[in-house]
Design brief:
Helices cover 47% and strands 18% of the residues. By secondary structure, the chain is α/β, with parallel strands linked by helices. It folds into three domains: 216 residues, 2-enoyl-CoA Hydratase, Chain A, domain 1; 128 residues, no CATH class; 57 residues, OB fold (Dihydrolipoamide Acetyltransferase, E2P) (Beta Barrel).
């Protein structure tokens, strides 16, 4: 083995845990760890910058870390990055933890959320204490296993403590501070780490670096799992379906609308969604449609705006700020939707209801003059500057004003115009 290392050198793989930690991130991290094991990498470095994420996804990543046959290094990078909430657990579970100057770690207090519907759980103090105690026990067990500061880890959970890179190194929360990946590789070179199969001495100085980014599928799923993107997809889905209903046969808008809704509901399964919010948004859109079909000159429009705004604010109902929908986006979407229905769609439906002015249908309702007596079989009228043969169910005198009620080939059925 040593001969092979001298001949071919060593490889260090690099992955990234960035943004909200959810099922997609967990699947990606698992894939990267399995690949590093399969290719017998010297070590695997995860560059981390996260506000936190879902408990289930976090625990899935930690299980893979603790059972990995390849040394895992979690590196808070670049400068300005943060390692909060679920990220703290993942960092403490690594074989080696490192940070860049200008980063911070901490604020790991658990938030009671349930992915896939239900929103933030309304819990009493007893249940909240149980959740906190569970998180404390979990993070202490991880810290103690890795020989890190378990007391600070508990403080990060109970009091949302957060510290800088220098403080983290001083408090034995991390092992190194490094300004770059190359510097980190030099610092960890020769370090011994404990793996499930035994102890391993790292040979990372000058190692070949091999980055493993998310594939296009993971990138796409992660993008739509963002609360703001999922919300916009949900609204665009209704736009597309309504456009298809008002333009039968257009196909593309309907297809894109249905696709957007499917993607939105997929994203909702990975987020703490409150389906009461979904219902309110649908109610708001329904009110806009009813306003157009049966104009009430205000009440339904106001109700639609209120319902949609409340539904949007409730949709991702959690105190975790990184999972909330941006307020400016909500205001922009509600305002755009209200304008769309009140002006664009309203004008379209009015145009559809307007009486035809050309063709056969264009004659219905036209007013003319009887130029001869008209009975049930014959007569003549002057309509639209032309003379037409006409008939009527009731006799009409010459000179009377008449109204066209039907067209039978080139003969007009008329009646005496009502005053």
């Amino acid at each position: 083995m040593n001969i092979l290392l001298l001949l071919f050198g060593t490889t260090v793989m690099i992955g990234e845990i960035e943004g909200i930690i959810g099922p997609v991130t967990a699947n990606y991290a698992t894939r990267v760890i399995k690949r590093a094991e399969g290719e017998n990498a010297e070590a695997l470095i995860f560059l981390i910058d996260t506000p936190g994420g879902l408990d289930e996804a976090m625990r899935s990543i930690i299980k893979e870390e603790l059972n990995s046959s390849v040394p895992i290094v979690v590196y808070v990078h670049p400068s300005g990055a943060r390692d909060a909430s679920a990220g703290v657990f993942i960092t403490l579970a690594a074989h080696i933890a490192a940070m860049t100057s200008g980063t911070n770690i901490g604020a790991a207090h658990p938030v009671a959320i349930s992915p896939g519907g239900g929103g933030e759980q309304k819990i009493d103090k007893t249940m909240e204490e149980k959740i906190t105690q569970d998180a404390v026990a979990y993070i202490r067990s991880i810290a103690e296993k890795k020989g890190r500061n378990a007391d600070w880890a508990e403080k990060a959970v109970r009091k949302s403590a957060s510290i800088t890179a220098k403080e983290a190194l001083k408090l034995n929360v991390i092992d190194f501070i490094a300004s770059s990946v190359d510097e980190l590789l030099e610092k960890i070179d020769g370090m011994e780490v404990t793996l499930p199969q035994g102890t391993k001495k790292l040979n990372t100085k000058g190692a070949e670096k091999k980055r493993i980014p998310m594939n296009w599928k993971e990138d796409f799923l992660k993008l739509i799992s963002n609360p703001n993107v999922a919300y916009i997809l949900f609204i665009l889905g209704f736009y597309g379906l309504i456009f298809e209903v008002t333009h039968p046969g257009a196909i593309i808008p309907g297809f894109l609308g249905a696709l957007s809704l499917v993607l939105a509901f997929f994203a909702f399964q990975t987020l703490p969604v409150n389906y009461a919010g979904v219902a309110l948004i649908i109610l708001g859109i329904a009110m806009f449609v009813m306003e157009i079909l049966t104009p009430t000159f205000g009440p339904l429009t106001i109700g639609g705006i209120i319902a949609m705004t409340l539904g949007s604010m409730m949709l991702i109902n959690t105190s975790a700020k990184f999972l909330q929908i941006s307020r400016p986006i909500i205001l922009a979407v509600v305002g755009t939707t209200a304008a769309f229905f009140l002006f664009a769609l309203g004008a379209l439906i009015k145009a559809m209801r307007r009486r035809p002015t050309t063709g056969k249908e264009g004659f219905i309702g036209e007013v003319g003059k009887a130029v001869s007596a008209i009975n049930s079989t014959e007569g003549k009228v002057f309509v639209r500057g032309e003379y037409w043969n006409a008939f009527s169910d009731k006799k009409i005198k010459e000179g009377e004003e008449v109204e066209v009620v039907e067209i039978d080939r080139l003969k007009l059925k008329v009646r005496e115009k009502e005053v």
